[in-house]
Amino acid sequence: MRILVTGAAGFMGSHLVDYLIKQEKHEIFAVDDLSGGYTDNVNPKAYFTMLDLRNRKKTEKYVSEVKPELLYYLAADASEGRSQFTPISSTERNYLAYMYTFIPCIKYGLKKVVVTSSMSVYGAQKPPFSERLAKKPEDIYGIVKAAMEDATEILSKVHNFNYTIVRPHNVYGPKQNLADPYRNVIAIFINCILNNKHFYIYGDGNQKRAFTYIDDFTPYFVQTGFKDSCNGEIINIGPKEEYTINELAEVVLDVFFPTGNIPKHLKPRYLPMRPQEVKEAYCTNDKAVNLLGYKTTVPFREGIKKMIAWAKSVGPKKFKYLEYGVELATKDLPKTWSDKLI
Ligand SMILES: NC(=O)c1ccc[n+]([C@@H]2O[C@H](COP(=O)([O-])OP(=O)(O)OC[C@H]3O[C@@H](n4cnc5c(N)ncnc54)[C@H](O)[C@@H]3O)[C@@H](O)[C@H]2O)c1
Questions:
Q1: Measured from the CA of 168, which atom of ligand 1 is nearest?
Q2: Is the Cβ atom of 268 under 6 angstroms away from ligand 1?
């Protein structure tokens, strides 16, 4: 099969490409504009093209040449917390770039699309979120992910292709961008410590989240593209267990300082909650268990240990803020970003 992976130089996209290449069954086409990913992440056996999918003409031309049968769509500006301050970027890099890729794909013979959506579409409803819940996003990122889902469902009724929508939780592990100050809480905590700085926790740290080590995500994610039983389905992928951000902080610090002697200057500090951040976001996974045989194999602490070992091997990174700042630098912009605190 001719498979196109977008966001292939990013964290989850590059793991997906590695997994597909290992299968030695398919031709893998990989695109990314390197706004958040790295060429080093991309498996050399994939046909990689640097392409900004917001460029409609170039994207149409590229798709007309590749003619993918299966599309895994991961390219994104995935900064959920920042999306209230960069709503245009969120719309362009998520919804619009998707349309610019997806529509030509349909035109040139697409058989199936796997859309990487997000838990953010559930918003502030009572967790654990089941796929049966209606979408009620609380933030711009959630709105555009919900729109991507809806557009996919509607177009599939009119045009002849299959789809699966995947809603991951917080996924973490090697190859995650350590330099992004806007997202990936685990990567931020770890990179701060590697830089010999304390990290910040928004709110009281009692927000609850579920976390998935990348090796417990990719194999199931791959399957969704091939299994007929996944056609037309929305699937949460990840473990059920939830942790507070304070618990996460404790585990990270404990792995770095197993004797319990945390240097005073590395103790976490607290800042106000970010606007529109939901208190609790974790989900059911019965559907993933039934359809994909989902099983957690890397427990939380083990995953954090592996991630820290990898981060130590690549060394500390300087946090990279948006070159031209955010679109709405108002008083509610978290201090971490306005004052470049990390
Ligand atoms: N990591 C998570 O915890 C998580 C959770 C839920 C959903 N998701 C979704 O999964 C997908 C992958 O996330 P990730 O964590 O690997 O993020 P990532 O930032 O590592 O990967 C996204 C990639 O998309 C690329 N990209 C952005 N705009 C582009 C454009 N206009 N044209 C081409 N490429 C572009 C970036 O350069 C980056 O490499 C995203 O769609 C994200 O919304 C991630």
A1: 6
A2: no
First-residue to last-residue Cα distance in the chain: 44
Centre of ligand 1 from the C-alpha of residue 159, in Å: 26
CA of 261 to the centre of ligand 1 (A): 36
Nearest residue CA, atom 41 of ligand 1? 74
Domains of the chain, residue spans: 2-172+211-237, 185-209+241-280+299-338
Is 185-209+241-280+299-338 a domain of CATH 2.70.70.10?
no
Residue pLDDT, tens place only, 220-238: 999 999 999 999 999 999 8
Question: What dihedral do alpha carbons 269, 272, 278, 283 form, nearest 10°?
Answer: 10
- Report the separation in Å between the CA atom of 294 and the middle of ligand 1, taken as the mean of its atom positions: 22
- As a whole number of angstroms, the distance between CA 197 and CA 214 comes to 26
User: Is ligand 1 within 6 A of the CB of residue 7?
Assistant: yes
Q: How far is the CA of 77 from the centre of ligand 1 (A)?
A: 6
148 lines ligand 1 (CB under 6 A): no
Report field, pTM of the whole predicted structure over 0.90? yes
Rg (CA), the chain: 19
**For residue 302, what pLDDT band results from cuts at 50, 70 and 90?**
very high
Buried b (16+ CB within 10 A) or exposed e, 290-329: ebbebeeebebeebbbbbbeebeeeebeebebbeeebeee
- Class in CATH terms, 2-172+211-237: alpha beta
Q: Alpha-carbon distance 32 to 49, whole Å?
A: 7
For atom 27 of ligand 1, the residue with the nearest CA is 76
User: Which pLDDT belongs to residue 341?
Assistant: 97
Pairing, β 208-209 against β 243-244: antiparallel
